């Protein structure tokens, strides 16, 4: 099994110690000290552990998003709809409920984060479906109907928390082109805004 480097961000020292004990049961995991803010070593999975999505947790997630830290796993208590949207806007695609945390669940989440995949609890996906206002589609891996490759590229980067300028630079488009692509996509799918588009994409299994 591929080795995974993991760093932990947690305000609660007791909870952090419990998470460390879980990680030490995994022979393929290497714990990385995380004493200072700033860029992490490439390839490290950053695990954010929080009781709830308070201001500090949101700030941590936004800082990780600003540094384009895509390999991030969030372990948190129950979220209100607006909090789940905040998490999605920060580019978090691996979410584990604290009360459902086990060694097996954590191992699966770390592997998904390291591989750049998405791993959301079923009830979180259902909540996103409710926010979108449509029933959840059966099965997994279903793709959004009528999305062009260019739209898919823009939406994928948007879901990672990228700003318009960064998306334009990565795709070699103008900022105006990126805005136009998003505008046309949102209008065609009858969505409300960019956040709604991200929620829709997650519900459909596109990201």
Summarize the structure.
The chain is α/β, with parallel strands linked by helices and 207 residues long. Helix content is 48%, strand content 12%. The protein has 2 domains: 117 residues, Rossmann fold, CATH 3.40.50; 72 residues, Winged helix-like DNA-binding domain superfamily/Winged helix DNA-binding domain (Arc Repressor Mutant, subunit A).
Defining traits:
48% helix; alpha/beta; Arc Repressor Mutant, subunit A; 12% strand; five-stranded parallel sheet; Rossmann fold; 5 strands; 207 residues
Query: What integer is the average pLDDT?
Result: 80
Overall geometry comes to: globular
Gyration radius over CA: 17 Å
Low-confidence stretches: 134-145
Structural class: alpha/beta
Subunit arrangement of the protein? single chain
Topology:
Elements: E1 4-10, H1 13-23, E2 29-31, E3 45-49, H2 55-66, E4 72-76, H3 81-89, E5 94-97, H4 103-115, H5 122-132, H6 149-159, H7 164-171, H8 175-188, H9 194-203
Parallel strand pairs: 1-2, 1-3, 3-4, 4-5
Helix pairs in contact: 5-9, 6-8, 6-9, 7-8
Task: Give a structural overview.
The chain is 48% helix and 12% strand. Mean pLDDT is 80; it is low at 134-145. It is of the alpha/beta class. It contains 9 helices and 5 strands; from the N terminus they run βαββαβαβαααααα. The protein folds into 2 domains: 4-120, Response regulator (Rossmann fold, 3-Layer(aba) Sandwich), CATH 3.40.50.2300; 132-203, Winged helix-like DNA-binding domain superfamily/Winged helix DNA-binding domain (Arc Repressor Mutant, subunit A). The chain has helices spanning 13-23, 55-66, 81-89, 103-115, 122-132, 149-159, 164-171, 175-188, 194-203, and strands at 4-10, 29-31, 45-49, 72-76, 94-97. Helix 1 (13-23) links the parallel strand 1 (4-10) and strand 2 (29-31). Strands 2-1-3-4-5 form a 5-stranded parallel beta sheet, with helices on both faces.
């Amino acid at each position: 099994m591929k080795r995974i480097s993991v760093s932990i961000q947690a305000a609660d020292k007791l909870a952090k110690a419990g998470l460390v004990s879980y990680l030490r049961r995994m022979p393929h995991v290497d714990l990385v000290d995380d004493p200072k803010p700033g860029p992490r070593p490439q390839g490290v999975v950053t695990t954010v552990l929080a009781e709830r999505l308070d201001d500090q947790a949101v700030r941590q997630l936004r800082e990780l998003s600003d540094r384009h830290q895509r390999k991030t796993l969030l372990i948190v208590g129950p979220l209100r709809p607006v909090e789940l949207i905040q998490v999605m806007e920060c580019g978090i695609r691996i979410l584990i409920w604290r009360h459902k945390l086990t060694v097996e669940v954590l191992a699966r989440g770390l592997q998904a984060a390291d591989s750049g995949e998405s791993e959301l609890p079923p009830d979180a996906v259902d909540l996103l479906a409710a926010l979108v206002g449509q029933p959840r589609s059966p099965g997994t891996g279903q793709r959004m109907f009528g999305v062009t490759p260019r739209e898919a590229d823009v939406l994928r980067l948007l879901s990672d928390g990228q700003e318009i300028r960064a998306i334009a630079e990565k795709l070699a488009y103008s900022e105006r082109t990126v805005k136009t692509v998003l505008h046309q996509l949102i209008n065609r799918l009858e969505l409300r805004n960019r956040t709604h588009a991200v929620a829709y994409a997650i519900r459909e299994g596109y990201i």
